[in-house]
Write a structure and sequence with these properties.
Blueprint lengths: L7 E5 L3 E7 L5 E8 L3 H5 L35 E4 L10 E8 L2 E8 L4 E10 L2 E12 L5 E6 L2 E5 L6 E8 L2 E9 L3 E7 L8 E8 L10 E6 L5 E7 L5 E7 L6 E3 L4 E3 L3 E6 L2 H17 L10 E3 L1 H4 L5 H14 L3 E4 L29 H9 L3 E6 L3 E2 L4 H5 L19 E2 L5 H17 L4 E4 L19 H19 L4 E4 L17 E3 L6 H11 L8 E5 L13 H8 L3 E4 L8 H23 L1 E7 L2 E8 L2 E8 L21 E4 L5 E3 H6 L12 E9 L1
Parallel strand pairs: 21-22, 21-30, 22-23, 23-26, 26-27, 27-28, 28-29, 29-30
Antiparallel strand pairs: 1-2, 2-3, 4-9, 5-6, 6-7, 7-8, 8-19, 8-20, 9-18, 10-17, 11-12, 11-14, 13-16, 14-15, 15-20, 16-17, 24-25, 31-32, 32-33, 33-36, 34-35, 34-36
The structure holds (2R,3S,4R,5S)-2-(hydroxymethyl)piperidine-3,4,5-triol (DGJ).
The site of (2R,3S,4R,5S)-2-(hydroxymethyl)piperidine-3,4,5-triol has 11 residues, from loops.
């Protein structure tokens, strides 16, 4: 088909265009997602040749930008409903286009059943990311069951072949990068756990099989949502590919009452023409410019007490750790789990959010004061969505958890999930947090969430599957209110490590706890994966003890620091057990980090690889920081020079510390000698400043 000029729209970003057009059946087709096109060029996009011998029913799989279940649609349908009479097919007519600066809304209506769909596109002046949402409104007289309402379906241009890149994982091994040939059919990624999940991050990238870090076309999409979700990559038998993404999971559905509206979370999409590193950098810029609440702030160096003490905490012990942390240069002291009620182990107390009177007889005030006097901010661990059955809260409100009358209440880590979809639970949660923050000068919350939903029922509620979305919406509401009323508050999103990392939670939190796995060697892969989408300034990274408590691996202090310095550096070891020499070296490395953190947190990231040496380079305004590491060595092995990118070839760069002077042209073409020690687990940090 050749689109009629008035039925074709071009969404422009600084260097890309996304083009959609209606066909003769009012189906919205994705015609182009790639380099910038003028309107005239877009209007001339060629008709695809007719396939030999195909029936009219073929050919609309993986080419539509809006994918309602309708006649002859047997592939992935992003919009699935059931009307009151049982009909599932939509017959949509295009109603109108509402255009504003960098915004487009296309409206479609099913006249018989009164269902209105609004698909919305939003572009930015400073980013190639396009944000999309879908709104469903029931303008009819009967309720409509909404089975699936994806935020967006992205049509990827036709190429010979495709690869799929995903971030998969599990607890302790989150955001692992995996790249594979895209099979025919539907590939589903998602979470049915109630949270974003460790198993899969709501992001995917598609390339034509030839892209590398520094070249090639990459199409990617991320969902800004912290509840359940599904992403379907469909490769039709024609070879065409589309990606449909949205919140929710099968088999849940919600009822849309007459007059009611449902707006989906944002799905963001990005086309990058210069490889995976450029794609990642564009996502980082987008996060800083349009997602994070305080993008301009440099994240402080934290100390977190969890690995040092676990539940064995006392006011004196925490104060002593705070003194050690302050001496090392830490700027934020975070007291983790175990400070409240009967929470002296993980079997009791969750839900009773008042300081343990034996451990903090005078409340939290004296410790907070001490921490502030040491020149640090004070942070506190909370897990507001959870309850231990052995708690005052549960004894008073056994109906406040997700449950079903005739099913057991399955515990995980001895805890149950509070039904935050309930308005009274959300009110209670906000009230105790608000009081805690009002009574105490708390600067930072580590907001944990340590188990997925199970037996997710809501007895008495007419539309109980609503809990899956309302839980997340109420979580967002509570966070938004707390932030508005306590402007100094900064928040870390944690869910047993990296179980809730997405652009939805990052709109109202400042950083994430990347993983409970603090082994620096394992962290390299976890951080590399996370960095495909999320900027280093949200990537919490602690330096902990050797041997590592989980993996029992011992790696040198410098190596542990250098890996953590690629994100938001923090210290999480038992500082009392460190030697004087380790604490002194730790302080030097914290000081090193403070000299480069503006580059790490706000600069352009480029991955480095040269033989067995790997690392990252962060550059901003004539300054570059290199963090690199090599795990093992072999007899006769020599580290190659590491070529740097993004430098001015005509400029000279002075290396801070050694004062060696390097030429940009030489660093780019020959590389930098990192002078790594000839040991296992060697690492380096180099800071180059343009002269
Ligand atoms: C899980 C978190 O990921 C840890 O860092 C720690 O806060 C524990 N929960 C405390 O229970």
């Amino acid at each position: 088909m050749r689109a009629h000029p008035t039925r074709l729209w071009v969404i422009d970003t600084p260097s890309t265009s996304y083009v959609v057009a209606l066909d003769e059946h009012d189906r919205l087709r994705g015609l182009h997602w790639g380099p910038r096109l003028t309107r005239e060029q877009a209007a001339s996009l060629p008709e695809l040749p007719e396939a030999v011998g195909r029936s009219v029913t073929d050919g609309c799989d993986a080419v539509l930008d809006l994918t309602p279940a309708s006649a002859f649609r047997y592939g992935a349908n992003g919009v699935q409903v059931r009307f009151a009479d049982g009909a599932r097919e939509l017959e949509l007519a295009f109603t109108e286009a509402v255009e504003a600066e960098r915004e487009l809304t296309l409206v479609f209506t099913d006249a018989h059943y009164g269902l209105e769909l609004r698909t919305r596109y939003r572009a930015f002046a400073d980013s190639d990311v396009i944000e999309r949402t879908l709104t469903l409104r029931n303008r009819g007289a009967e309720p409509i069951e909404v089975i699936r309402a994806d935020s967006a379906s992205w049509v990827v241009p036709e190429r010979e072949d495709y690869r799929l890149t995903q971030l998969y994982g599990e607890w302790g091994a989150e955001t692992r990068l995996h790249r594979t040939t895209l099979p025919f059919g539907e590939t589903h990624l998602g979470s049915r756990r109630g949270i974003t999940g460790h198993q899969s991050n709501p992001w995917v990238a598609i390339d034509d099989g030839t892209a590398g870090e520094a070249h090639g076309e990459v199409w990617s999409t991320a969902l800004a949502w912290s509840g359940t979700w599904r992403l379907t990559v469909e490769k039709a038998p024609t070879g065409r590919v589309a990606v449909s993404v949205g919140s929710g999971h099968d088999p849940v559905s919600v009822s849309l009452a007459p007059g009611e509206e449902l707006e989906t979370p944002v799905a963001a999409g990005l086309y990058a023409s210069e490889g995976f590193a450029a794609s990642a950098a564009a996502w980082h810029d987008y996060a800083r410019a349009h997602v994070l609440p305080h993008p301009e702030e440099l994240r402080p160096v934290a100390y977190n007490s969890w690995e040092a003490t676990e539940f064995d905490i006392s006011a004196e012990g925490q104060a002593a750790l705070a003194e050690r942390a302050a001496a090392m240069g830490c700027e934020l002291f975070v007291m983790d789990d175990g400070w409240f009620s009967s929470r002296v182990h993980d079997r009791a107390g969750l839900g009773d959010w008042h300081p343990n009177p034996d451990r903090f007889p005078d409340g939290l005030g004296p410790l907070i004061k001490h921490v502030h006097e040491l020149g640090m901010r004070f942070g506190l661990w909370v897990e507001p969505e959870m309850v231990n059955p052995d708690s005052e809260l549960y004894r008073a409100h056994p109906d406040w958890v997700y449950h079903r009358p005739h099913r057991r209440r399955s515990e995980m880590r001895h805890q149950l999930v509070l039904n935050l979809a309930r308005a009274d639970v959300a009110e209670w949660m906000h009230a105790w947090l608000d009081e805690l923050l009002s009574r105490n000068e708390i600067d930072f919350l580590k907001w944990d969430m340590n188990r997925p939903f199970s037996e997710a029922g809501w007895p008495g509620e007419a539309d109980p599957d609503r809990l899956w979305s309302e839980h997340t919406r109420n979580l967002y509401r509570v966070l938004d209110r707390l932030r508005a009323d306590h402007p100094r508050l900064r928040i870390e999103s944690c869910a047993s490590g990296g179980g809730r990392v997405d652009f939805g939670i990052l709109r109202r939190t400042d950083q994430v706890w990347t993983s409970d796995n603090t082994d620096a060697v394992d962290r390299i892969a976890i951080q590399e994966g996370l960095a495909q989408v999320y900027p280093a300034k949200v990537m919490g990274a602690w330096v902990t003890d050797a041997p590592n408590p989980f993996t029992r691996r011992s790696v040198p202090l410098d190596f542990r620091f250098h890996v953590a310095m690629a994100g938001v550096l923090a210290v999480g070891g038992d500082l009392d057990a460190w030697t004087e020499g380790e604490r002194e070296r730790g302080a030097e490395l914290v000081a090193d980090y403070k000299r480069i953190r503006h580059l790490v947190q706000h600069g352009r990231r480029r991955p480095l690889r040269a033989g067995a040496v790997k690392g990252v380079q962060y550059g901003l305004d004539g300054e570059t920081a290199v963090l690199a590491w090599r795990l093992g060595r072999r007899l006769g092995y020599r580290d190659p020079l590491v070529k740097l990118a993004g430098l001015d070839p005509a400029a000279r760069y002075r290396e801070r510390g050694t004062e060696r002077v390097h030429h940009g042209a030489v660093l780019a073409s020959h590389g930098l000698d990192l002078r790594l020690r000839l040991d296992d687990y060697a690492s380096a940090m180099v800071h180059l400043v343009e002269e």
